[in-house]
């Protein structure tokens, strides 16, 4: 009975969202509505976040690249994850480093609110308004997958906030995916370009990952900036991890009616044509043509004063 009620509630919410989308006239509002889906709190979306976390962990063979593991093991280390989503990254770390403390912040209530480890705390807050924590409070500050959320000028403020709440000697790490100079087959490239164009219309820097190092270096109390990239093949000749990434991409593109409606209209095709494009043409392209994804981590140490 509970599942039926939950499903009915989701369906009513979905119908309401589609009705609202149909009434939107301005491009700005349409792209804001699309963004609501992009960071959806639906069960399917949260499941994808969980799988995506373990995908990235496998690609890098670690949950982070900053040299902080010894301190985490020693205990008493305070870690902040900004834009934590459902909290998968923090929950994974908290089980491995039980003597350290983990804090997550997100503007949506995707994270566990009742059942969670004793060394984890979550807070609902909007990063663009500033972090409510004091100066020099955390040993390690982390942010990931926020490329399509904030405008370029906001990222200057966000980095300053991450640096502000990090202790001298602590580390700040930013992770994401490369958008430029990535080899993609034609259908996949067209779809990704359409999503990126929705960001450009909102003054989003879709190539943010390229400018982050220079943004870090503008801060006088930041030491050497480090960068690591990992590439996986998601098209022809992909291995098992590439197949997982491929399935995540397909699930993202075909799972929600609101996204289907948005992308089909942006591409100038009917929803039925869009579904065929994803479920048949894109699947065949993945099997026959090379495509890749490139994941990036950038980290730096806040200098001792």
From TrEMBL:
Keywords: Methyltransferase, Transferase. One of its GO terms (molecular function) is methyltransferase activity. InterPro entries: Methyltransf_25, SAM-dependent_MTases_sf. Pfam families: Methyltransf_25. GO terms for biological process: methylation. PANTHER family: 2-METHOXY-6-POLYPRENYL-1,4-BENZOQUINOL METHYLASE, MITOCHONDRIAL (PTHR43591:SF24), METHYLTRANSFERASE (PTHR43591). This is S-adenosyl-L-methionine-dependent methyltransferase. It comes from Rhizophagus irregularis.
């Amino acid at each position: 009975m509970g599942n039926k009620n939950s499903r009915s509630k989701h369906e009513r919410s979905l119908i309401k969202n589609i009705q609202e989308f149909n009434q939107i006239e301005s491009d700005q509002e349409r792209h804001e509505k699309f963004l609501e889906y992009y960071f959806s709190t639906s069960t399917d979306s949260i499941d994808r976040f969980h799988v995506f976390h373990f995908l990235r962990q496998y690609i890098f063979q670690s949950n982070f690249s900053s040299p902080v593991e010894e301190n985490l093991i020693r205990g008493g280390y305070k870690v902040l994850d900004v834009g934590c989503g459902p909290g998968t990254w923090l929950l994974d770390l908290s089980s491995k480093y039980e003597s350290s403390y983990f804090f997550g912040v997100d503007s949506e209530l995707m994270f566990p609110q009742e059942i969670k480890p004793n060394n984890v705390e979550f807070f609902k807050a909007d990063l663009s308004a500033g972090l409510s924590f004091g100066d020099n409070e955390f040993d390690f500050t982390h942010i990931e997958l926020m490329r399509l959320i904030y405008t370029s000028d906001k990222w200057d403020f966000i980095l300053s906030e991450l640096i502000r709440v990090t202790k001298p000697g602590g580390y700040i790490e930013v992770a994401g995916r490369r958008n430029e100079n990535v080899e993609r087959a034609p259908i996949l490239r067209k779809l990704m370009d359409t999503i990126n164009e929705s960001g450009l219309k909102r003054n989003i820097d879709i190539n943010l990952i390229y400018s982050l190092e220079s943004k870090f270096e503008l801060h006088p109390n930041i030491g050497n900036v480090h960068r690591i990239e990992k590439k996986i093949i998601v098209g022809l000749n992909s291995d098992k991890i590439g197949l997982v990434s491929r399935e995540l991409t397909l699930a993202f593109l075909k799972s929600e009616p609101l996204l289907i409606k948005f992308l089909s209209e942006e591409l100038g095709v009917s929803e039925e044509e869009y579904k065929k494009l994803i479920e048949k043409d894109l699947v065949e392209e993945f099997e026959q043509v090379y495509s890749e994804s490139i994941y990036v981590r950038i980290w730096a140490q806040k200098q001792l004063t």
